[in-house]
Design brief:
Elements lengths: L1 H39 L10 E6 L3 E3 L4 E8 L4 E6 L2 E5 L6 E8 L5 E11 L4 E11 L6 E4 L5 E8 L7 E8 L8 E7 L3 E8 L8 E7 L16 E4 L6 H5 L4 E7 L9 E6 L5 E9 L9 H5 L13 E8 L1 H4 L10 E9 L6 E5 L1 E2 L29 E6 L9 H6 L6 E10 L6
Parallel strand pairs: 2-8
Antiparallel strand pairs: 1-3, 3-6, 4-5, 4-7, 7-8, 9-24, 10-11, 11-12, 12-15, 13-14, 14-24, 15-23, 16-17, 18-21, 18-24, 19-20, 19-23, 20-22
């Protein structure tokens, strides 16, 4: 009997151990299954947000001018597209992760133009950048009054009032310009100098033709006409557009001067009003190698007198006026002026650009300043709608009322060359 009881106990213990082992096995298998399932499921990858930067070829542009915007983009998830102000400007296949793209814009109106750029990646994530462009009205084109390179087609002699000393050579020359007239005339007082047309450029490296003026004073009649400058008077044959003239420096008379020491003011003193946007320019070349006794440096040493200041260089005046009566006259008096300016050649033997934005002191006495002190000589002033003549006034030959400057300047045979007389902007819109 005791043997049977022990056998039953052993059977129970064996069953209990078996069940425990089975449970452990089940737990191990289950754990292995769980681990196995977890390793088969991939971990979700996290991509950085895309990036975009922009740089412009210019911060300012004229209407119609092309500006380039360089866009640098990157996206770990892959690029999808770039937009400008919501409009797609480039698309990608989703595999490219970086790019540099150039976007061009030609603005059609002035003002501040702001462009908003956006890059989009394959996960629909975005990045933004913007750029501003200051758009200006387009520059007004250069207005060519005369290229001064034409050839002479003929000439006549004109004796003003049979005075003898005021005998003028009137030359017709071909004129390339923005005017419709294909020819113009140039008058020179024969005792002052003469003009040579269609001359070779004094700079041998350049091939264009130019105008040469050479002083030719006649000591027997006192040198230059009027005791001062010589005048190369150009009749353009038609008026310069009013819009061009109104944009030039305007003279205003706000003071007066007693030039003859008689105790009374006899000339208005002009200054330049602010706000002008256009200026007259001409290229000039002073050759001081012909007369070795009168170099440009010698000229600069001459003591300045009223209306003539050579201390900074060879003075050139320019007069805007009306051909009749300023040029085609019979009295010898200076009339028909609209405005006058001065500029200086500061270097010899090379082309320099003269910009006329200083009121001519010498020519002010001939201008009508309204109620100015010199109305008796301000005769027949030209209106802005009548300006059809330009006078070049180089300081070649001077019989300056017995001063030492007369000895220095009379007989100057150094030629001066001119080309490309034009009206230009004072500065480009974006300068």
């Amino acid at each position: 009997m005791s043997c049977q009881i022990n056998l039953k106990r052993k059977n129970k213990e064996m069953k209990k151990n078996y069940l425990s082992k089975c449970l452990i096995i089940v737990q191990i298998v289950g754990l292995a299954f769980v681990v196995s399932c977890g390793s088969d499921d991939p971990i979700a990858q996290v991509f950085s947000a895309p990036t975009i930067s922009v740089s412009a070829s210019s911060e300012c542009a004229e209407i119609g001018q092309t500006v380039e915007f360089t866009l640098t983009v990157a996206a770990e998830a892959g690029l999808t597209s770039i937009t400008a102000d919501g409009t797609e400007i480039k698309s990608y296949g989703g595999t490219e992760v970086a790019d540099v793209f150039v976007y061009q814009v030609s603005p059609t109106s002035d003002g501040i133009l702001t462009i908003a750029f956006q890059v989009i990646d394959s996960k629909a994530k975005t990045a933004d950048a913007s750029s501003e462009l200051d758009v200006k009205e387009a520059a007004v084109p250069t207005f060519v009054i005369s290229d001064l390179g034409g050839s002479a087609t003929g000439s006549v002699e004109l004796d003003v009032e049979s005075q003898g000393w005021d005998v003028r050579t009137v030359s017709t020359f071909t004129n390339t310009s923005n005017l419709t007239a294909s020819t113009a005339t140039l008058e020179f007082v024969a005792s002052q100098g003469h003009a040579l047309f269609g001359q070779d450029n004094p700079d041998a490296s350049q091939t264009d033709k130019v105008l040469q003026l050479v002083g030719a004073p006649d000591p027997a009649v006192g040198g230059s006409w009027g005791g001062h400058y010589i005048f190369g008077m150009i009749n353009l044959g038609e008026v310069i557009p009013q819009g061009e003239l109104s944009a030039l420096p305007q003279l205003e008379f706000n003071s007066a001067l007693d030039t003859d020491d008689d105790g009374a003011d006899d000339i208005g003193v002009a200054s330049i009003a602010e706000g002008y946007t256009r200026v007259i320019q001409v290229d000039a070349y002073y050759d001081d190698t012909v007369n070795p006794n009168l170099t440009l440096n010698d000229v600069k040493q001459i003591v300045p007198i009223y209306g003539l200041d050579l201390s900074t260089g060879y003075q050139v005046d320019i007069i805007l006026g009306k051909n009749d009566p300023h040029i085609a006259k019979t009295t010898g008096e200076v009339q028909g002026m609209y405005s006058a300016y001065s500029a200086w050649i500061t270097e010899p033997n090379k082309w320099v650009t003269l910009t006329f934005e200083v009121a001519s002191e010498a020519q002010q006495q001939f201008l009508n300043d309204g109620d100015g002190p010199n109305d008796e000589t301000a005769k027949n002033p030209a209106a802005i709608t009548e300006v059809d003549a330009v006078t070049l006034v180089p300081a070649y030959s001077h019989d300056i009322w017995g001063t030492d400057a007369a000895t220095s300047l009379d007989g100057d045979t150094n030629p001066i060359y001119f080309r490309n007389l034009r009206i230009v902007n004072t500065a480009a819109p974006c300068e």
